[in-house]
Amino acid sequence: MSSHPCLRCGACCAFFRVAFHWSETDACAGGLTPQGLTEPLDPHRVVMRGTYGGTAVRCEQLRGQIGRDAHCGIYALRPSPCHALQPAWEQGAPSPQCDKARVAHGLAPLTPADWPAGAGAA
Ligand code: SF4
Ligand code: SF4
């Protein structure tokens, strides 16, 4: 089993609206995220399907069980908000977004002790 805490979590993928400029989709030359996995938000932005809002936010690309084995099904193609959300303390800094999502799913916020030497993301 991987020691990376995100691969036992997935909480942020089932908490925040994941919105980004449409040009990040493969509808635009150089875009990566499959357009078909998104839906329009406004004339300039799209959202990952499942994250638009409401009471049951969960990105449709999230695989597995939150808090156990959740992981992104399109990791290499995920959009910029997913790159931007940093796990708390991976780089030595807090992450209020990470904490908020984990607490909302009944998970304890990460601490520096969750990052033993060599456990950080590549
Ligand atoms: S960034 Fe935080 S909330 Fe998101 S999967 Fe990683 S540990 Fe969980
Ligand atoms: S695209 Fe992947 S990383 Fe981004 S919210 Fe969806 S499951 Fe999470």
TrEMBL record:
Write down the superkingdom of origin.
Bacteria
Pfam families found in the cross-reference section: CxxCxxCC
Protein's name in the database: YkgJ family cysteine cluster protein
